[in-house]
Amino acid sequence: METTAQTTISRRDPAQVMRLSRLGSLHQCRLSFMRVLTRRMARENWSFARPKFDIDAKGVGVAVYSATTPARTYSLVAFAHDLPPEMRSDRVIATAWDSTFALFDGIPTDEDIERLSKNVPYQEAGRVSEREISVSRANRSVRLWEHVVSSLAEGKQPDPEQLQAVGYLMRTTAVYGSGKLGAADREMIAARPEFEVPFQAEMLSVFLTRWYVRDLVQHMADMRAKAAGNTAARLAPELARSLGIGNSTGLGMAPFLLNHPVLFNNWIASREEAIRTVRSLDSASDEDTGLFLELLQRSKKNVALWHSEHEIQVRKLSELRSDLEKIDGYLASPEALSGSHPWDRMYRWAEETLTLEGQEWLASLMLEPYGGLVDDLSNGMAADNTPTFRIAGAMTIEELRGLLERVYEWAIGTDWQQPENRARAWYVSEEKLEPRLGERFEEPVEEYEQPLAPGRDAAALFKALAHWQGDTRVAEFLLRHPEHRHTVRRVQIAGRAPYAEIRDNTISHDVLPIDMLRCKLAFFGATQFDPRSDRWVRICMYGNAPYPQDLSAENADFWVYPTLEEGAPA
C-alpha cells in the first residue's frame, strides 16, 4: 500500500546535484529507460516472434525478431557475420563487426531485407531509410563466446563464474537513432506512446539483440555438435538470464549532456521530483519497508558482483561497500523506518554520513516501493528543443546578470587565465570521427575547439556585460556582440530549466569525462560500470532481465536486482 505524498520537502538544489562528482555517482532507478520499457511491454502485453532465422554453420546469415505493441509491430533485422579476429574492433572507425542490426518500423519484406543487407553491414558507409528507426552493431566477447559454444557443444553447461566475470556474450559498439545514416528522425516517432520517453527505440533494439545473441550462441553450439555427431546441451535458463548485452562507451557520448541542456534538465528534474516525493511521505507501510529491505539485500548482491580494475572505480566501490555497512547499522534500529517522514530522515542521515556513491545508491533504492507515485514522471523526460532556441531579446541586462550570478557563480569566480582551469579542449577528430579531449597547451587543437565549456563562456559573457546599463535590452547587446549569442541562449535556458547545466569546469586539467558517461548510462539503466580509463567505460545492459517470451507483470520491474539464494538474508 502506498502512502499519499505530502509536499513539505523541496527538490535538491541544482548547485548540489549538478556537480560532476555527484552526476558520476548516479545509479539506475525506476525512471531508467530500460525499466520504463520492460514495464510498458508487460503492462500492454506485447507479443514477440522470430519469423526468420537463416544462419549457416559458420554463423553467417540473417534473422528477424519482432515486437508487436497494441498498435504496431517493430522488427529487429540482424545480420550475422564471420569476422576475422584481426578486424574485430570496438572503435567507431571499425569497418566490420560480428553482427549488425536495424530496427525496422513494421514487418520487413524480402525486398526490405535485401536492401538492408547491402547497407546495414557497412554501418556509416551504408544508408538506410525512414522505415528504419535505429542502426547498431555488436562484437563478441571472444573468449567467453568460445567457452560457451564449446561447452554446450560438448553437452555441458558453461562455467557460471566465467559468465559472471564478464556478464555478456556480445557488446554493442554503437546504437544509432534520431536520423543517423538516413534513419527516421526522432520527430517521426516521438508522438507514439511507446517512444515518448527518451531512448525507448534504442532500448527496444538492445532488448531484442539480447534474444538474438542467446539464439546465435545456441545455434553455433548446435552446429558444432552436429558436425561431431553429437547433440549440444541447451543453455540453462538461469545462466542465459544472467547474461546481458555489454556496451563500450567513450568520449563520443560525453558531449551529449552539454549539447542537450533541456533534455538533460528533464531527466534530472524527474529523478529529483521522485526523490522529493518519497522523502515527503509522512510514513512508510510495513509492505513498503519490506520491499525496500528485500531489494536492498538484492542490490547488495549486485555490488558484490561489481568489479573494476580502474583506480577511481576501485576506490568508489570500496567506499560504497563501506557505506553499505553503515546503512545496515542505521537500519538495525527498529525506529529507522518508522515514525514521521522515515525516508527523509534516512536521506538526511545519508547526506551527513555516506559518500556520494552511497548517497545516490540509497536515493535510487528509496524510490522502489513507490512506483504508483513516481513512475509517471518518466512522461516528462522528453524535450522539444525548438522553443528554447529562441533568445528573449527583450530581457534586460540586469536580469541576464542575475541569471549568470545565480547559475554560474562558480564559473564567475574561476580564474580562467590559470592554465589548469583551461587545460583541455574538446574537438572532433577527423581521423577517428568522434569527439576528443585534447591538451590545449600541448596539442594544436584550440582552433578546432567545440563550444563545450559553458562555464568559461558564461564568465566571459559576465565580464563583457560589466559596463552595460542594467535596463538595456539583451537584443541591443547581441547586436554589438554576436559572439555571445550561444552563451546568452544557454543562460536563458538554465534560467527556466534549473538542472540544465553542469556546475563544473568541463575543460579543467582534472575533469573526468567518465562522470558524464556514467550519468547518461545510469539513466539508460546500465549497471556494472567498469571504466577502462578516465575517458571510456564498459557496462552491462539487461543483465538478469527476462527474455521476451518470459516477460510478465511479475518480473518486468525488479529484474535489475539479482534474486537471493535459498536461505539468504532478506
Structure characterization notes:
The chain is α+β, with helices and mostly antiparallel strands and 570 residues long. Helix content is 41%, strand content 13%. The chain contains 22 helices and eleven strands. Strand 1 and strand 2 form a beta hairpin. Helix 5 (142-153) packs across helix 8 (200-227) and helix 14 (342-353) runs antiparallel to helix 15 (356-366). The two termini are 20 Å apart.
Backbone CA Rg: 25 Å
Report on the biggest sheet. Answer: 9 strands, mixed
Gap between N and C termini? 20 Å
Mean pLDDT: 93
Number of strands: 11
Q: Point out poorly predicted stretches.
A: 566-570
Structural class: alpha+beta
Number of helices: 22
Quote the beta fraction. 5-15%
What is the helix content?
40-55%
Which word captures the global form? globular
Instruction: Going across the biggest sheet, name each strand in turn.
Output: 1-2-3-4-5-6-7-11-10
Topology:
Blueprint: H1 14-17, H2 20-23, H3 33-43, E1 47-55, E2 61-68, E3 73-80, E4 99-105, H4 110-117, E5 132-140, H5 142-153, H6 160-166, E6 168-176, H7 186-189, H8 200-227, H9 237-242, E7 244-249, H10 256-259, H11 261-279, H12 286-305, H13 311-331, H14 342-353, H15 356-366, H16 371-374, H17 397-407, H18 409-412, E8 424-428, E9 435-439, H19 454-464, H20 474-480, H21 485-496, H22 513-524, E10 527-531, E11 537-541
Parallel strand pairs: 6-7
Antiparallel strand pairs: 1-2, 2-3, 3-4, 4-5, 5-6, 7-11, 8-9, 10-11
Helix pairs in contact: 3-8, 5-8, 14-15, 17-21, 19-21
